[in-house]
Every structure is written in structure tokens, then in C-alpha cells.
Amino acid sequence: MKRNYPLLVLILLLVQSCCFTNGEEIGRIYFTPEEKAIIPYADNQTIQFITDEDFEFQLNTTVSSTFYSDQDFCEDYTSYENYQVYLNSELPTLDVQLSLQNRYNGEDDDDTLYVAITINNTWFDYDFSEPLETVEINGTTYTDVYHYYSGVLDNPISEVFYSYTFGILKINYLNGDYAQINS
Asked: Is the pTM of this model over 0.90?
């Protein structure tokens, strides 16, 4: 048995040797400029908004592009771009996060690119079966508008109207107040 002990240790070391090194990145998948364009904001941009009480304020943008991987321990991996735009306002307090997401459609093995919206740490849902809407704001008609809603019953913000061309158009509050793009 003592003779087999060093052999057993050697076998265990060989089997676990891959775990002493990290895998290598074998590829990076980036969003194309066309895909990123569905979040129509640039870094350090200021977007003018107005409330239902005619209070004007600005949302300031910050763009972030990082990478995450699907790496399992010891294995080679591919990194994927994580593209996000943050919009912030101090008064009213709004911390908005827009991120590009891929929604896998199991029916035809196709990914659908969409914008995920989080405001003040609350996720807003979009029902992909719903038709796009038309919204009028300050006499301007916006078509192909996505209607996002909060799944949290007591969240002060109830819904968001978003356009891939213009960005956030309107934010409705549960109490009937709203903030909208000041175009």
C-alpha cells in the first residue's frame, strides 16, 4: 500500500493540474454600433426633461462597456460585452440604467436584442407580445414606442415609454405625476 501512495498522489495532481491555471480567453463578442444605437445616448450627454408641474430638469449620461465571461473553472472561455448607459438626476432623484440584452427565443433559435430598464433599483418589464405604441408629447407624435411597466405594486414609478430612436420619452408615477422629454 505504501508503494501505491506516491502513485495515487501523482495521479491526483495530474487530474487536478488543469485547475492550477486559469483558462484562456478564446474570443470576445461585441455589440455592433447598430446594436448599440438602440440606446440613443452618448457619454456625457444632457437630456432635457419636464414634469407635469413644468419643473425642468436634466438627465446626465454615462456610458459603460465592460465584459463578462461564461468561464467554468479551468476552461477556456468567451467574453461578452456588457453595454450600459446610466442617466442620473438629483432632483427629482432618478437613477436610470439602460442595458442591452439578448432575449433567447427558443422557437426559432434566434436572439432578440432589447433594452432592459432599471430605475431607482427597480426592474421594469416589457411584454414582448404587446404591440408597439404611439405616444404624443408636446405636440410631437412618437411611433414604435415600447411600454415598460413596474412589477412592484408600491413602486412610485409605474411605467416608462421608450423609443429606440429617442430613448426615454415619458416616466409615469403611480400618483398621476409624470416626467417627459422636453422636446
From this structure: no
